[in-house]
Design goal:
Radius of gyration: 21 Å
Structural class: alpha/beta
Strand order of the largest sheet: 3-4-5-6-9-10-11-12-13-14
Order of helices and strands: EHHHEEEEEEEHEHEHEHHHEHEHEH
Shape: elongated
Largest sheet: 10 strands, mixed
Number of helices: 12
Number of strands: 14
Distance between the termini: 29 Å
């Protein structure tokens, strides 16, 4: 069965033609995948909800295609701020996570791009069971649509920062971004989308050419190669000098600011001399540093930095001319670290 959400409009047009129907029907079908139905936002959940599509075409579609509906296995809702954390089950038994967040500027969702991850970052729960497989474009965008159906609210900001390394699934990521932006579908501005990478240099270079208006975030987490390599194996393939050169090339080409994600780990990368070294490395770059107190994952053996030390680190960077903020913590009363729900589910399944 073809997941219609894996297809761009032109591919839906090809399918409709193969089914012996006129081309204009493709826009109607494509629109229903993403627009509000009588049940609310999140697209239709049944072909018969496509009210302006002939019954004969709906029947043909039912026989050859699916709507790729994701259903949550578990939903955790924060009593503090309304943050919703989803565990979605996939047809092959894998599981992925997404997080719905409410901000003053609107609703945002953090989506996963892979089931698992092979990057092996020491502080991250997402990759502790390794990479299972890449997600398809429809499985990525399906997370957003499922959250809209669950909440009854539209989502206008998307962050690709959940389970997986987006640039390790670049082709499907690209298709997903085009689907988000398609005027006939969700019509989301590229400037309302952020993609985060652990630092895959070829991907950064391609991304700057292919999607210059989409925001880029880099998981840096260290001021030098020695510390970064101990936490992030990717640094051995792409050392910091090579990574930062690619970032400078990106900002020069796109005139867009890069966000550097920096997880603060107690006694590892949060001391004043680390801040001094980081500021020197980033000096003169069009960037912003997003400081993230570590979400403790017991398997990692790492511990989070205290709030006052995080504030000192931020102040040090700013005195050196590097804009920095401490990430606002949402959903503090639900599982903190990305990947924790999925990790627990995978281990439960193995036991069973």
């Amino acid at each position: 069965m073809i997941n219609l959400k894996d297809l761009q409009l032109q591919e839906v047009e090809k399918l409709i033609k193969e089914l012996g129907e006129p081309k204009f029907r493709a826009k109607q079908v494509f629109g229903w995948l993403y627009r509000d139905s009588t049940e609310g936002p999140g697209g239709v959940t049944d072909f018969d909800q496509m009210t302006n599509v002939p019954k004969v075409l709906r029947k043909k579609l039912k026989e050859q295609a699916s709507l790729g509906i994701l259903a949550p296995l578990q939903v955790q809702v924060s009593k503090l701020d309304g943050t919703r954390k989803y565990l979605f089950g996939l047809e092959d038994g894998n599981a992925i996570e997404s997080v719905f967040m409410k901000y003053k500027y609107g609703n945002s969702i953090c989506v996963s791009s892979q089931a698992g991850c092979r990057m092996g970052c020491r502080f991250c729960a997402s990759g502790m069971d390794g990479l299972r497989r890449n997600l398809t474009p429809g499985e990525i965008i399906g997370q957003l649509l499922a959250a809209e159906r669950d909440t009854g609210e539209k989502i206008n900001h998307v962050v690709v920062m959940g389970t997986g390394e987006p640039f390790d699934n670049y082709e499907n990521l690209s298709s997903f971004l085009r689907l988000l932006h398609a005027p006939e579908g969700l019509n989301l501005s590229y400037r309302n989308i952020t993609v985060s990478t652990c630092g895959i240099v070829p991907g950064i270079k391609d991304f700057g050419v292919d999607f210059p208006q989409v925001n880029l975030a880099i998981s840096l987490h260290a001021p030098n190669d020695e510390i970064r390599s101990s936490m992030m194996p990717v640094s051995r393939a792409y050392p910091m000098d090579q990574l930062l050169d690619a970032c400078r090339e990106y900002t020069k080409k796109t005139s867009r600011r890069i966000t550097f994600e920096y997880t603060l780990v107690k006694g590892v990368n949060d001391q004043p001399h680390h801040g001094e070294e980081l500021a020197e490395k980033l000096r003169g770059m069009l960037c912003h540093v997003n400081l993230i107190p570590l979400n403790t994952v017991k398997e990692s053996g790492l511990h989070t930095t205290e709030r006052k030390d995080a504030e000192h680190f931020r102040d040090l960077l700013e005195t050196k001319g590097i804009p920095a903020t401490i990430r606002r913590e949402l959903g503090d009363d639900i599982d903190g670290a990305c990947g924790q729900l999925r990790l627990a589910n995978c281990r439960k399944c193995r036991k069973e």
